[in-house]
Amino acid sequence: MGKSLFRFADALELAVVYAFCFFLNLLFNYVKVWDFNSYILKAFFKNFMDYQTLIVFFFTFIVIVFHYQMLYRKKIEVYCRVLVGDTVLYIAIRYIRDCLMVLTVIYLLFLLIHVHLKFCLTGNIFLVFIFIIYILISASQVRKYENF
Amino acid sequence: MKIFKFFITKIFLRKAILCISMFMLLCLANYTTFIASRSILSTLQGYQEIKCMNQEGIFIANLDPDSNIDMDIIGETGTRIVYDYLNSNHKYAFYTDGFMIAVPNDDDMEISLCYMNEGYYELNQFDISHGNDLFFDFQLDKEEAIPVLIGTGLSKTYPVGSTIIIDEPVLGRSVILKVQGVLKQNSCHSNFYALNSKSYYNFSIFMPVNQEFIENANIDLQLNGLMDLIILDTTKEKTEDLSRFMYDNLGLKFNFFSQEENFDYFNDYYLYSLKIIAITTLILLVVITCISIWNALVSIRLMMKDFTINLLVGLSYSRLRRIFYSYFGILFGVNLLVISSITALNRYECWLRKDATFVTYGLFGLIGMDWLALLVVLFSDIIIGMIVVESMLRKIKKIPISLGVLQ
Amino acid sequence: MTDIINLSIKEKVYQDKKTKLSILNDFKLEVHAGEKIAIVGESGVGKSSLLNIIGLLDMDYIGEYALWNTPTGKVRGKEMARWRNEKIGFVLQESALINSLTIEDNIKLPLLYAESTKKKLRLEDYEKVVDEIGIRSILKKKPLECSGGQRSRAVFARGIIMKPEIILSDEPTASLDVENRERIVNLLFHMNKEFNTTIITVTHDLEVANRHDRVIRLERR
Fold first, then answer.
1. Which residues of chain B have pLDDT under 50?
2. What end-to-end distance do the CA atoms of chain B give, in Å?
3. Substitution target from C98, C108, C116, C119 for chain A, most A beta carbons within 10 A
């Protein structure tokens, strides 16, 4: 038991959620360079490729769900930690740190895959920015659970 | 109804993020299913269309991909010799389109001219909503009007029996057209090599083409007509002779594919593509369903207390099941509405762009294929809904009411 | 005797879009070190809110509050957290436990935030506290696997493990049977007698309230 709100299962769940979004984006990038040799397939995938950013963005909502449910479940824990000598600020900082750590690990993993597949390395950057924004917004919600 | 309203307003919507994320996931699932089923339906529809051409003794021409069109070599004499050869040795179906002209009409659309000979017309059996069939034994005389069929969109301005004067682009002079009949709404033509790609005839004029017409037409029509040429009642040997003849006179290598070869092509190319589409869609749907289940179980985890307190005070599991189904019914309903609206908007965009080959008519702007695809989406929604709702209920039943209330 | 708590509240307001609730109007409280105070009153008069203010969990009120002669308005958040860790113990209702941790981890939670020297000392006391409260058998269990009474005792153990100068307890005996109620009350008073711990208890149980040095009745105005 540490000072973090994250248990191993939580970190793993977050990693899987991040990995899914990165994987989806990677899949789009892969399909983009795929030589279909079929007009039907090209036309079919075009319906998705044209909206790549929007579709990936839609899927990033599962990250919001993760943050939301995680903090909601931890509201008593936040309160208890504050009771016994922690502060909301430190809890939030540790929360941001842990999320960023998981994000960094997954991002680096997918960066390696991008390098391996010789894809543009900046292809996933927009997701990192979106996730950082989600982390910061969710961290600000920690204050909500100071008193339960 | 009162309980359902209570659950929606006081429980589900109070955790709006979960509702929004579920909505988005279902939206993606619906979009995927819709696009996939429309692609498959459109391809199958196209296949039905070319089925009438894919018969024994019919060979379809295809310009060899390695051939280069050199207009200096081809020339008008070359194409005329080829047509003379065709007229003497073969029965053939001739079709070419994409010649745009300006004809005054209520919708201010540019009109597409589609040229076809009797062989092609008979092969395709176009449906006519009113008026008569096209005939081809007209004299290409300045005084005589050419009988034509027109698309539904033009029928308001030009009813059956009326005449249209146009500057004929391939004859290079002004001609009078007489409206012989009106094509059925949304009549269309699928690209031979991309069956899911359609050109609609709502703002088209079907121009009958006979030997005399081809002889008087410019090289554009003559050459384009050769690209999709269909040779009827023939043999492999005879098409090989024709191919050689065309190569000698035009410098272009044409391949002629038999029914067997076209069938193989369908199996190798279309069926393969359709399989990939089906498998991709299935994988996407499974993934989205799994994420939806995860999202639903997260909702249960967070709303457990609300659910169990209601169970504690008398709500039955069967009633809760009905509430969940109604809730997902609403989500799916809104989703279907969104997808229908987007599709209708896309179709309406063609009207705004004045894109004559893509404008369509339909109930609420959607054509039959869209409605069929929506039906498939509805079916997939029912399956996804059942999986998600039953997973939610299983989760709720697994947690004793006492423990749930405590949480 | 010196006052350790000097609290003067003009008003504490709870407000949402539709309603505004004002409680603890012109409320004053002075508490000496080692005093045992019971706070009684009907539901909604602000008993728990008062505990939150005293325990530095709620700073959103109009008034002045000095704790150990230090105006709390001037104390930084980090220092307040240290006070909550070392000097103030909270004994709340049974639900104030982290369900994903074992009872042992829940009880040891304050040690996580303690300075290392104090941590060692308190770890030595831990075994004694566990036995005194009678919860050794449930240490490896998770809160939802325990009875209400066991959970209440675990919350109590967590509240006293740091040997705080002030114990703030909110209905500490609410879900306990007579035997366990006596055990908890005796332990609270034992802390008071042995270590001069100040006890402030919010309770509906008048019998428990009357055993304190002073009973403060909060009334709605």
1. none
2. 28
3. C98
